[in-house]
Design a protein that fits this description.
This is Tetratricopeptide TPR_2 repeat protein. One of its GO terms (cellular component) is plasma membrane. TPR repeats lie at residues 423-456. It is found in: Cell membrane. It is a multi-pass membrane protein. The longest helix has 31 residues, at 373-403. This protein folds into two domains: 3-255 and 349-406, no CATH class; 423-507, Tetratricopeptide repeat domain (Serine Threonine Protein Phosphatase 5, Tetratricopeptide repeat), CATH 1.25.40.10. The chain is built from 23 helices and two strands. Strands 1-2 form a two-stranded antiparallel ribbon. It has helices at residues 3-8, 11-19, 24-41, 51-64, 82-91, 97-123, 127-138, 141-147, 153-173, 176-190, 197-210, 216-245, 259-270, 281-302, 312-333, 341-369, 373-403, 406-419, 423-435, 439-452, 457-469, 473-483, 487-498, and strands at 70-71, 74-75. It is mainly α.
Length: 518
């Protein structure tokens, strides 16, 4: 150990200090940081919106209204049903659907960080690498970005983490009950994203490969139980779609990309957490190929023919390979977004683990290979942390520009608020309009929010302030007179009215509140 490490970490405290990195409370602290980050990133403009987001919001609101799986433009068939079902269920508590999205995705993101940290802590020998991996996942741009949007990726990623934990537990017990439980988790993932079919294939393959001591009939029985439980919910949903629309998952476009382009897209996404965007595609492909050969060498090196244990690294590797292969097949057969980051975000934690597992194995073997390895090990740890953490901080610095973009969010808020207006959504829309300098439109949005709210005072105040900034003093008087009717903000309304130009207040005789009493 280099002398500077001895100064910073005396021998008697070094072991205790290092073990802090893989303790459960460290994972919890990172998870809470993640939750706070998502909530802070969506505080001003609400969660980010996209075409998929609008469909989720619409379906959840139709479910709350008892109208079934519908959107404003037809049946809900292009996506599985679990995400809007959960959000509609939480909406029964009295929260607006848009508020539910914020807190639900923030909770999913925090749980992902916590369980990834615990998963890494079980198999990596060096606690510092456990911490590095968890922080890398915490700062991973695609996952963080989707957690700040109305998208199902955070829920699907969480279920993927649970799948890896559950299927790996099966490799230890090889019981029917564990296979059935894994099937339940996998079935929920498939009901969240159609991409979850890849987890069904992955689980079946791991059951077949890891069951060495069982008779082949027992192996097939466990694989069959897993496959049936995992496939039945999605099969029922697809049958419903076919009976009502004549298609399993709605109309799909054709693939516009060539094979080489698709490979470049996937390699860019898989290597996004270790290489900057400026790295040429050919070099990315070379890195992916080298990593694949390195993992195969490690598995061959550490997998004795008499060894019966199925390692977590093997579970992670099979998950990455099967899910990436399924995505490659999907790109070849149908139209998908050319940015694969969102699709591969659910398995990026497994790719991070494999990279750290490789470093962990090298550091562990280095002192045995040569005396210099004792000096190289801490250097590799520091460089790995600086590289992965620094690159993550670089990409996350751009995510705020994407999420906190009122112009981008406003277009989809317009669509959603026109079909299903709510006080929360209209308030968020008003804040976005304020930041764009559309003060009159912001005042109108706040006014609509006040009419729908059970506690409209703050919305009337916001409408009055926006009208003042628009120099529409007649509108400001009307909004602030309405605000005076509600005690919590009456004093503030009086103060704002007193600051208006003389003679304006007398020009309005009978303000109409327009408030719908609860």
């Amino acid at each position: 150990m280099p002398c500077f490490f001895r100064v910073i970490c005396p021998a008697r405290n070094k072991a205790l200090f290092m073990t802090i990195f893989n303790k459960w409370y460290t994972g919890l602290a990172l998870a809470l940081i993640g939750v706070a980050g998502v909530l802070a990133g969506t505080a001003d403009y609400g969660p980010g919106m996209s075409p998929d987001s609008t469909s989720y919001v619409e379906c959840a609101r139709h479910l709350l209204d008892g109208e079934g799986f519908h959107t404003g433009w037809g049946l809900y068939v292009r996506w599985p049903p679990l995400f809007p079902i959960l959000l509609a269920g939480l909406g029964l508590l009295g929260l607006d659907v848009m508020d539910v999205f914020r807190f639900f995705n923030a909770a999913c993101f925090g749980l992902i960080i916590y369980f990834v940290h615990r998963l890494f802590a079980k198999d990596l020998k060096f606690p510092y690498l456990v911490f590095t991996g968890a922080v890398t996942v915490l700062l991973f741009e695609p996952l963080l970005k989707t957690s700040m949007m109305v998208l199902s990726e955070p829920l699907y990623t969480l279920l993927t983490v649970f799948f890896v934990m559950s299927i790996h537990a099966y490799t230890k017990t090889q019981t029917y009950s564990q296979a059935a439980w894994t099937g339940c988790i996998t079935g929920m993932a498939a009901l969240t994203r159609y991409y979850g079919v890849s987890l069904i294939l992955c689980g079946g393959l791991i059951i077949l490969l890891s069951s060495r001591e069982l008779h082949w009939k027992s192996v097939m029985g466990r694989a069959g139980a897993f496959g049936l439980i995992a496939s039945l919910p999605l099969g029922a949903w697809l049958l419903r779609n076919f009976l009502q629309t004549g298609s399993l998952a709605g109309p799909r476009g054709t693939n516009p990309y060539g094979f080489v382009e698709i490979i470049e897209i996937l390699s860019r996404s898989l290597t996004g957490f270790i290489m900057p965007q400026a790295v040429p595609p050919a070099f990315r492909l070379l890195i992916c190929a080298a990593a694949l050969f390195a993992f195969l060498f490690l598995f061959k090196r550490f997998s004795d023919s008499a060894e019966k244990e199925w390692t977590l690294a093997k579970t992670m590797a099979v998950t990455v390979l099967v899910c990436t292969g399924f995505l490659l097949y999907s790109y070849l057969t149908t139209w998908l977004d050319p940015t694969a980051d969102r699709y591969l975000a659910p398995v990026q934690f497994a790719a991070v683990f494999l990279a750290l597992y490789f470093v962990d194995s090298l550091i562990g073997a280095a002192p045995q290979i040569h005396q210099a390895g004792k000096l190289a090990a801490p250097v590799v740890l520091v460089l790995c942390t600086l590289w992965m953490g620094g690159l993550s901080l670089h990409v996350i610095s751009r995510s705020g520009e994407v999420i906190n973009n009122p112009e981008k969010n406003l277009a989809w808020m317009e669509v959603t608020s026109n079909m299903h207006p709510s006080a929360s959504l209209l308030t968020t829309k008003g804040n976005a309009l304020l930041d764009l300098g559309e003060f009159s439109k912001a005042a109108e949005s706040f006014e609509q929010a006040a009419k729908l709210s059970r506690a409209p005072g703050p919305a009337w105040i916001a409408a009055g302030k926006a009208a003042i900034r628009a120099e529409d003093y007649l509108m400001a008087v009307r909004m602030l007179e309405n605000a005076k009717e509600f005690d919590p903000v009456a004093g503030e309304a009086e103060e704002l009215l007193s600051q208006l130009p003389p003679g304006v207040c007398g020009s309005i005789q009978d303000p109409v509140s327009g408030h719908d009493s609860p």
